[in-house]
Amino acid sequence: MTTHREPLDSVLDTIGETPLVRVHASPDAVPVYAKLESFNPGASIKDRIGKYMLKAMLDDGTLEPGGTVIEPTAGNTGIGIAVAAGQLDLNAVFVVPERFSVEKQQLMRALGAEVINTPSEDGMGRAIERAHELAGELDNAVVPQQFSNPLNAEAHYETTAPEIYDALDGEVGAVVAGCGTGGTLMGMAEYAREQHPDTHVAAVEPEGSLYATFLGRDAEEAEYKTEGIGTHDTSTNELFDPDLVDDVIQIPDRRTHEEMQRLAREEGHLVASSAAANSLASLQIARDIRDGEIDAPHDSVVTVFADSSERYLSKGVYRSFEEWEN
Ligand code: PMP
């Protein structure tokens, strides 16, 4: 599957062209395939947007070589941007509320980035404000802001989606992805609808998250443990276009936790909670297509496994449900 067989010049050349692998839990339903994004060098799907956004901003002159990229992020996006910045003669600065995962902050620093902490009690809002203040103090500095930057979705329209369609000779019935910023799903959905306007598109979120309200559903806000997907404040989800989405599937943490264990034990996938939620939603859609409840143009469902469980071992993802912390 992976096409990196020749020697490559840079770690950036290893981003993308990840394997697409069958998920086997419902053998009598239509096939489900997952794109294994932990094969990227920063071990998540966000390497794609790090490389894509930074290159695009260098190409159009928004950033000059030697410049600084400042992003308020505590997660995979920071690692993805740090990998790319290091190879593209750019500096990376991340503004991170203190309480966020220490492992991820260590990886960002190891990649040469600067991490600035803001007090946890001030939340992500303060981190965003601080990022913009810092950018204002420097020449040649930008805040890519993945939540509102169309380049985020474009990275998936240009890379993730075409790779999937190539692998399946265009025979894709449904695309399914958990939404954090919504960039992955929006890029895939736009591409999918161009290939076939009736491609079924489903967003995935934990129970307690509010993406469902975009489709006019009632959703009760609550805390959840599933990481990287979901929203508590839909005003921040500027990329999400409900017109491109047929359904929002909510998965309770307890089922996601069980599916994380099953994926590891039965299928050898050391993937994190957002992948497990995507797996469950995709398997449900595969059964609905088989039963004629969803009318899809082809008998297949595709999704992404965004990152690896190794990044969350300290949060107890493989301990009991009660011991799993967020
Ligand atoms: N899974 C994980 C583990 C993530 O870190 C993210 C990004 N927050 C997502 C899924 C969701 O991706 P997107 O931001 O493209 O919606």
Automatic annotation (TrEMBL):
InterPro entries referenced in this protein's UniProt entry, alphabetically: Cys_Synth/Cystath_Beta-Synth, P-phosphate_BS, TrpB-like_PALP, TrpB-like_PALP_sf
Query: Which residues are in the Tryptophan synthase beta chain-like PALP domain?
Result: 12-306
Top-rank taxon, per record: Archaea
Kindly list the cofactors needed. pyridoxal 5'-phosphate
Q: Does the keyword Cell division apply?
A: no
Per the record's keyword annotation, is Transferase included, yes or no?
A: yes
Q: Which Pfam families match?
A: PALP (PF00291)
Q: Which UniProt keywords apply?
A: Amino-acid biosynthesis, Cysteine biosynthesis, Pyridoxal phosphate, Transferase
Q: Which GO terms describe its biological process?
A: cysteine biosynthetic process
UniProt GO molecular function: transferase activity
Q: Which PANTHER family match?
A: CYSTATHIONINE BETA-SYNTHASE
Q: Which family does it belong to?
A: Belongs to the cysteine synthase/cystathionine beta-synthase family.
> Could you tell me what this protein is called?
PLP-dependent cysteine synthase family protein
The beginning of the lineage is:
Archaea, Methanobacteriati, Methanobacteriota, Stenosarchaea group, Halobacteria
